[in-house]
Amino acid sequence: AEDPGAVDAIFADWQSASDDLHELSDPIQSQYHEFFIVVGCRYQGRPASRCVYIWVDKDFAMYRGWIQGFPKKLGSIHMTRTMPVGKAACKLQPGTRFGATCTANDRQIARAVVTLTGISESGPSVNGPAMHNTRHFPAYNGFVPDVFELVRAGGYDREVTEIWEGDAELTFYPGSIENLQAIAPREVVKGYRFTFGYSVDGGEVLAQHKKEMTV
């Protein structure tokens, strides 16, 4: 990342489906929310990103995330929705405020508020480079072989709407099990609101780590 101290804190309202799209007619199988924290980094000299914390509100999304190398935990995530009509529509226009919260284990984790000011010329940057995850599944008896590898997440058919930006507030609450105060924001630059879609493929294994054992 260009700024080694930059972090994206992302609240997402997802709708996912397999190739035949059958989950879309049974929304309990396709809809979920997430809050995740992405840091910028480099791998072999190239910009990359890593997800260091992530909470999700559906078990199927958590299990799928483990397979992909995301450190997902269960949480409760709520976000302001936008609608085309109505006083409570939160339309995409200057002055509209969007809020989001995440709790886990009956503790507050994070809260964000974005007040839209206009269309963004650039959008967020930290989450732009490919996500690099660690897949680690220890062997049942504690000995090798186990799964321990660095992977690059794959995706294609990316689409994105117009990106709105605005003034942002971000709070990490003390007292959570993860203690996010260690990475509490020193400065909140901007907030963004947009919709994007993509298809997931298997990605790429970049490195196989070895587990050192002494018996």
Describe the structure.
The chain is mainly β. The protein has a single domain, classed as Acetoacetate decarboxylase-like (Beta Barrel), CATH 2.40.400.10. 5% of the residues lie in helices and 49% in strands. It is built from one helix and twelve strands; from the N terminus they run βββαβββββββββ. The chain has one helix at 59-68, and strands at 7-15, 31-43, 46-56, 72-74, 76-79, 97-104, 107-119, 132-137, 147-160, 164-172, 191-193, 196-208. The strands form three sheets. A five-stranded antiparallel β-sheet has the order 5-6-7-10-11, with no helix packed on it. A hairpin with a 2-residue loop joins strand 6 (97-104) and strand 7 (107-119). The radius of gyration is 19 Å and the shape is globular.
Compact overview of the structure:
This protein has 215 residues and is mainly beta. The protein has one helix at residues 59-68, and strands spanning 7-15, 31-43, 46-56, 72-74, 76-79, 97-104, 107-119, 132-137, 147-160, 164-172, 191-193, 196-208.
Q: Could you state the order of secondary-structure elements as H and E?
A: EEEHEEEEEEEEE
Q: Roughly what percent helix?
A: under 10%
Q: In the CATH scheme, what's the topology name?
A: Acetoacetate decarboxylase-like
List low-confidence stretches. none
What order do the strands of the largest sheet run in, or round the barrel if closed?
Answer: 5-6-7-10-11
Number of helices: 1
**Which sheet architecture does the biggest sheet show?**
5 strands, antiparallel
Give the count of structural domains.
Answer: 1
